[in-house]
């Protein structure tokens, strides 16, 4: 993605740039959320999950990604020096790929946070169901492609499937 990720770029401009890049890649944006205090996200139409995988995860067979039929493709956007909550999920595993910028990721098998790991362009991050994790913005904006691997086909994960252990924004 050809995006100006400088820390002084306004959130609305970052989102406009990403939306334009997604349109160039023929993705339909089902939802956009710029209201998150840490940045926000784009939801790509579920019908385009296969195209999303081919575009951002071409070396991973679709069958390896699908635990159930649904993948919930998203683009995460993390602001400079902001942190998502320290969290985990009951009904999904996640796979992230850095597609623009550099980000920090903290993981742990317990409620105690591990060390910050820096991930740059093309880095792949796999998060198991129940694994504690936090995405961290560094000096610039960071952009990741995300796949949700739903672990319960009868009750797919959603935005309510977040257990927050710590949150900078009091949520």
From TrEMBL:
<protein>
    <submittedName>
        <fullName>Mannose-6-phosphate isomerase, cupin superfamily</fullName>
    </submittedName>
</protein>
<dbReference type="InterPro" id="IPR011051">
    <property type="entry name" value="RmlC_Cupin_sf"/>
</dbReference>
<dbReference type="Pfam" id="PF01050">
    <property type="entry name" value="MannoseP_isomer"/>
</dbReference>
<keyword id="KW-0413">Isomerase</keyword>
<dbReference type="GO" id="GO:0005976">
    <property type="term" value="P:polysaccharide metabolic process"/>
</dbReference>
<dbReference type="GO" id="GO:0016853">
    <property type="term" value="F:isomerase activity"/>
</dbReference>
<dbReference type="InterPro" id="IPR001538">
    <property type="entry name" value="Man6P_isomerase-2_C"/>
</dbReference>
<dbReference type="GO" id="GO:0016779">
    <property type="term" value="F:nucleotidyltransferase activity"/>
</dbReference>
<feature type="domain" description="Mannose-6-phosphate isomerase type II C-terminal">
    <location>
        <begin position="49"/>
        <end position="167"/>
    </location>
</feature>
């Amino acid at each position: 993605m050809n995006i100006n990720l400088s820390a002084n770029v306004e959130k609305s401009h970052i989102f406009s740039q990403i939306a334009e890049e997604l349109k160039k890649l023929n993705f339909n944006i089902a939802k956009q959320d710029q209201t998150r205090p840490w940045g926000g996200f784009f939801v790509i139409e579920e019908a385009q999950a296969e195209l999303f995988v081919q575009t951002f995860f071409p070396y991973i067979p679709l069958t390896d990604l699908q635990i159930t039929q649904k993948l919930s493709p998203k683009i995460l956007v993390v602001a400079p020096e902001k942190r998502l909550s320290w969290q985990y999920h009951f009904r999904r595993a996640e796979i992230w790929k850095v597609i623009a910028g550099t980000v920090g990721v903290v993981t742990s098998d317990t409620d105690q946070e591990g060390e910050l790991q820096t991930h740059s362009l093309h880095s792949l991050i796999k998060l198991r169901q129940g694994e504690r994790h936090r995405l961290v913005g560094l000096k610039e904006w960071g952009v990741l492609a995300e796949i949700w691997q739903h672990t319960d086909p009868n009750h797919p994960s959603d935005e309510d499937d977040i257990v927050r252990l710590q949150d900078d924004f009091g949520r």
